[in-house]
From TrEMBL:
Name of the protein this chain belongs to: Endonuclease/exonuclease/phosphatase domain-containing protein
Transmembrane stretches, start-end: 51-68, 75-94
Residues annotated as signal peptide: none
Keyword terms: Membrane, Transmembrane, Transmembrane helix
Organism: Actinospica acidiphila
Endonuclease/exonuclease/phosphatase domain span: 106-307
Entries under Pfam families matching the protein: Exo_endo_phos
Molecular function as annotated in GO: catalytic activity
The keyword Transmembrane is assigned to this record: yes
Amino acid sequence: MTTTPAPTAAPAGRPRGLLTTTCAVLLAAVLARPGWIPTAPGHLGSLTDTMLPWTALALPALLAAALLRRSRTALAAVALPLTLWLTAFGGTLADKSAPGGDLTVVSHNVNQDNPDPRDTARRLLAAHPDILALEELSPETAPAYERALAPAYRHHFLEGTVGVWSVHPLRDARSLPIMPWSRALRATAETPHGPLTVYVAHLPSVRVHPTAGFTTAARDAALRRLTTHIRTENAPRSLLVGDLNGSAGDRALRPLTSRFASAQETAGAGFGFTWPSGFPVVRIDQILVRGVRATSARTLPATRSDHLPVAATITF
């Protein structure tokens, strides 16, 4: 006669869902105190800051595991990171835009290998920006953008791989030496509401390396130089736009971002992820404001670039 073996019992003294409970508590600790994750080794802290919104993906898995184990303790533990995630990011999901605004700003990393600059310019013009900033221009593509944008903008300044176009006059336009080649500039737009200093920057790329971790040395060095320029000038009303190769929450960027407010965080709806354009997972393209207020912020439809354009309406 064949007998069916009885189900294996959990080891005596081990509560159901112990692993799920432990994982939930650890996730809650990361959400509550991400600063506890050390910067070294491998700039792990910056990587954690950047990817923190995506911890939401772990919550359904933990909830399913708790229900499968029929563990009230595990269910209660899962409620901790859920509550903390909603506290940290729930407001981000709400639409914080307001009607009105004095001018529209658009910024876009156009990709130096963009095969159709004219089409990209046409798509950006559809947003009717008063100020348009472009990053990752190349000697081959920059003239194409200048020709395509000339009918809409009487004023522009282009240096190296970055440029700014404005319907308002620009003065004191110059390159900012944050790297051996030009990847940042500043200009003052003389708007009807008063002068507005515009900084356009494209910080160096970061990589996730198997042994070196989150490699940010070049970005952080350029960031320090850019921060010094902005602090020295201390313009009362200013914008910082461009590809910062880091999220607004990345602790490494705080010496710079702490001087500004993120248009997306204060006047957008959702996270506004921008890269990669096919399936954005992080917002590294920023519009940051100081001395003025964003009334709306959004990403724009994809172009032939690997980044999505970003737009914001601001009021004085």
